[in-house]
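Batch manifest, entry 17 of 40.
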Amino acid sequence: WNQLVSDPDTIIIDTRNAYETAIGTFKGAIDPETTSFTEFPRWAQARHNELKGRKVAMFCTGGIRCEKATAYMRSIGIDDVYHLKGGILKYLEEVKPEESQWEGECFVFDERVSVKHGLEEGDAELCRACRHPLMPEDRESPLYQEGVSCHHCYHTRTEEDRARYAERHKQVMLAAKRGKGPHIGN
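Output type: structure tokens
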């Protein structure tokens, strides 16, 4: 994989959604800026001419989405296409940080929020209002309030929404204080 993505003739495509790519990706990767994978075929079709005849390397979190993207690319005539088997998670598990082409953290769909090399838990936390991953510098924003808002959603939520989120966060904290375990998702 490192040899493939280090080749300047290779086009590297991150098939994940924008909120996932926001906290990490491979060096030189193109971010299609999709909000849903269903947008990927339209993105690929619009770039068909620039991708045709080129070497294309695609990746995703666990390997499934990029397998689908690879099959789609081949179906539209992009033949020299590859994907990262096992996805970013396998890469971060097996590749030493000093040999890595990965930059940042990898968003995961569990309470860890993100992982680093060796699958060590990352520094990202979720905004409980919009579910966007937030890095430590994002949580420095004056628009960030734990459990209530962040710079991604502050202007799209109402005061009524934020009041609801604040009450929910209060209940989560009270449950934790009483030792009742995680309040959300229980």
